[in-house]
Amino acid sequence: MRILFTTLPVETHLRPLVAVAETALARGHDVAVCAPESFRDEVDHYGLPFLPAGKDWITGMLAPLFDSERIPPEQVDALMRRLVSEGLPGDGALATARDVLGHIREGGADAVVREAYDMGGYLAAEAAGIAHASVGVVGRVTEFLAPDRLAQPLDEHRAQLGLPPDPRAERLYAHLHAHLMPPGYDPAETAIPTLRCYRHRTVDRPGDRLPPLLGGLDHSLPLVYASLGTVAPLFRAADTRLRSIVDGLGEVACEAVVAVGRGRAQDLGRSAPPNVRVVDFVAQPLLLDTADLLVTHAGFTSVREALRAGLPMVAIPWIAENHLVATRCEELGLARRLDWEHLDAGRVADACREVLGDPSFRARARGVQRDMLALPSLDTLVTDIEELAAGAAR
């Protein structure tokens, strides 16, 4: 069986697909990852075959704000509306669909597995008449990507591909939607008729290891890891928040590692407190296995990886679905939420002390961890994809 995986050029959207692709490879299947050419090196890092598809429209949409010292909340909201109405279901989705269709016609495919933000893989599979599945790499997908927002632009693409209309976007999750969290985490997403839950598995890049600077940590103190993900640090407006996190952790009786994004560590780490190590990047899944608390932007990959390690969180959401994810984590008692606009070192320190000092946060995170470990493995997901592909072929 040949499976094509499709993703936007975002590393945290790719990572869960890698685990599925590696499982399919171990079962003897042929796999390839379809993404914009600019993302080739990222796919290559995981040792997976790459096929160019679509274009990187995300950078063009975000880039005008990269150097802004402050981005008002209303401007962030407008950007997110554009993302959902013009970006995800826009011309980039159709370009991806056409390129993926070309790969299907040239080399064949039995199924397409897409990350939930990518609409091009869904359109290509529909046009080719083969099975398709989505993987919930983002949280609260039915709220942030509500089908009624996507139906009209997707129907315009369906018409160009010779497909009948789908006025309620019901075909988006027609075959299988794989959720990598327990059913109780997101009741709305669980309502998708084709949803099945599977056990999340972290993946490492070849050569990943923790940096030597972690060898000198005081092991009598809790370890706090902080990261605002891969997207937020691209914006200059995030620098003041990162500084607040660095300074705030300096007020907490802990050892801390703060990942600040490419090229930022030298500047942001210059005046860091002695208990805080500032780095550009770190192998996050490895570090989470050893940590006691995650300070996060509430990106779904980070939240899922933290809960897989049984870690509570301090959540500081800013863009995309982060607010929805942070709210749910707070509702479940897994995190203390802070406001991005009013963040300062004192608030960071107080929240970290609260979560580290209250064992109920850790106990609830461990409960979710146990629920995750009780889910079917990704091997079961590949079996389900095999059955879908066989059914579509009949």
UniProtKB/TrEMBL annotation:
<protein>
    <submittedName>
        <fullName>Glycosyltransferase</fullName>
    </submittedName>
</protein>
<dbReference type="InterPro" id="IPR002213">
    <property type="entry name" value="UDP_glucos_trans"/>
</dbReference>
<keyword id="KW-0808">Transferase</keyword>
<feature type="domain" description="Erythromycin biosynthesis protein CIII-like C-terminal">
    <location>
        <begin position="245"/>
        <end position="388"/>
    </location>
</feature>
<dbReference type="InterPro" id="IPR035595">
    <property type="entry name" value="UDP_glycos_trans_CS"/>
</dbReference>
<dbReference type="InterPro" id="IPR010610">
    <property type="entry name" value="EryCIII-like_C"/>
</dbReference>
<dbReference type="Pfam" id="PF06722">
    <property type="entry name" value="EryCIII-like_C"/>
</dbReference>
<dbReference type="InterPro" id="IPR050426">
    <property type="entry name" value="Glycosyltransferase_28"/>
</dbReference>
